[in-house]
């Protein structure tokens, strides 16, 4: 049986041989014709057959992951980091976050509507929402049914 250090050593030798083989294949070409044919048959590290951009889908998401547009990728990384710090680091909750966003949106809309007359701009146009009586009754019946089922579940849990 091979000891653990011998297995580790043979594994490192295999990895080293693969890397040297890759380097040797990529640097061995003498003439211009060999170089042109070598570029068309480019070997990829770790045996990939396609470029990494194609493996990732080849679209805008692949561009973001590969940092081709550094400003977009950086702003997404920064935004995700801020959200992670809010929720994990500070202990902020999603429902509180959504409520604060809605309050900010309502405040901005109110200020914009009232300030529009002072700066000679048109006020924001909000869509008019009209619910029919039948829609309200359907929603009320569905909610009543769900609330009653919740009460039945709570009663069965409480009574054991």
UniProtKB/TrEMBL annotation:
Major location (coarse): endoplasmic reticulum
One Gene Ontology cellular component annotation held by this UniProt entry: endoplasmic reticulum membrane
Keywords, alphabetical: Endoplasmic reticulum, Membrane, Transmembrane, Transmembrane helix
Database matches in Pfam families: Reticulon
Highest taxon of the lineage: Eukaryota
GO biological process, one term: response to bacterium
Intracellular or extracellular location(s): Endoplasmic reticulum membrane
Membrane topology of the entry: Multi-pass membrane protein
Entry annotated with the keyword Transmembrane: yes
Transmembrane helix is among the record's keywords: yes
PROSITE patterns listed in its UniProt record: RETICULON
Positions of transmembrane segments: 101-119
Reticulon domain sequence ranges: 61-160
Residue ranges of the region described as Disordered: 22-44
Protein name: Reticulon-like protein
Species whose genome carries this gene: Aegilops tauschii subsp. strangulata
